[in-house]
Amino acid sequence: MRSAGLTLDVLNGRFASMSWVGLQLLGVLCLVLAAWVSLTGLVAVSAGEVVQISSYFALLTGALTNLLMLLPVGARGLESVRSIAEVMQEPDLEENEGRAGVAEVHGRLTLDAVRFRYPEAARDALVDVSLDVRPGETVAFVGPSGSGKSTVLNLVLGFLRPTAGRVLVDGQDTADLDLRTVRRWVSVVPQESVLFEGSIRDNVAYGLPRLTDERIRQALVDANAAGLVDALPDGWDTVVGERGARLSGGQRQRIAIARALVRDPRILLLDEATFALDPESEAAVQEALGRLMRGRTTLVVAHRLSTIRSADRIVVLDDARVVEVGTRDGLVAAGGRYARLERAQGA
């Protein structure tokens, strides 16, 4: 969607520039032609009438320019309507209707012989993945790019539906549940956290209008973000800019962690949450994540193996299949795929 918007903006800019230049050239041509006709006496036109004709033409071209400028606006509006229609037609919104809701989630997750293939893909993204995650357990997923790590998280969230097999939350098949009620108990910290145009407080409390200031403050403290917020001139009323542009990557991640903490989730999904951070920022974010993960079912996707040593279990994915499962020490001692990955990274 971002790429389509950029393409549309470029086309709008080119269209506006070419329209303006074309109409200005046409105006100059009209003025030159009228002057030539007047000078040669081909038609009885006085100098004053030439100026008058030029003024009329300027008025006409100005109105025409305004009309032409409406075309890009209309195209942008149609693109917006199309995007809204795509969201409204998403199966998640429709398939949840009338299904059983959940009042509470304890955090047990089960993948039962899950197989998934993306539309029009030639091969499966996941093949016969079975895993039982106990409440409060931290499970990390590692493996090469394209092995299916992020697909697992999207299946748990319900953004993707298994091609075969089942995904269960607290023993209930997610295919039978209203996933909107499940997601109230889930928080996600992605690789690139999305912050909205607005204040830090608004971003932390997003979607929870009744939060108290004390609860927001405690979330910022636990996320190692209180210091950076206090250092800002306007405190948590500071506007972060579009997509958090006025904050560094580490600061954005800590605000995102505070937003996850304030919801007190039972299930936590971390997708490369410390990727591309400098060592100092990574240390602060990792400490905050440790507080966030405590007592919660946590699924972690990571490429840097040094960030997942404390995980209760590590699942190694390769070629869409689970090839190893175990503790870090057990997998290293086994000398298999995980041990080779760790040696390659020098972790």
TrEMBL record:
InterPro entries: AAA+_ATPase, ABC1_TM_sf, ABC_transporter-like_ATP-bd, ABC_transporter-like_CS, P-loop_NTPase, Type_1_exporter. Its main location: membrane. Keywords: ATP-binding, Cell inner membrane, Cell membrane, Membrane, Nucleotide-binding, Transmembrane, Transmembrane helix, Transport. SMART domains: AAA. GO terms for cellular component: plasma membrane. The chain crosses the membrane at residues 21-47, 53-73. It comes from the Bacteria. It is a multi-pass membrane protein. GO terms for molecular function: ATP binding; ATP hydrolysis activity; ATPase-coupled lipid transmembrane transporter activity. Residues 109-344 form the ABC transporter domain. It is found in: Cell inner membrane. The keyword ATP-binding applies. Belongs to the ABC transporter superfamily. Siderophore-Fe(3+) uptake transporter (SIUT) (TC 3.A.1.21) family. This is ATP-binding cassette, subfamily B.
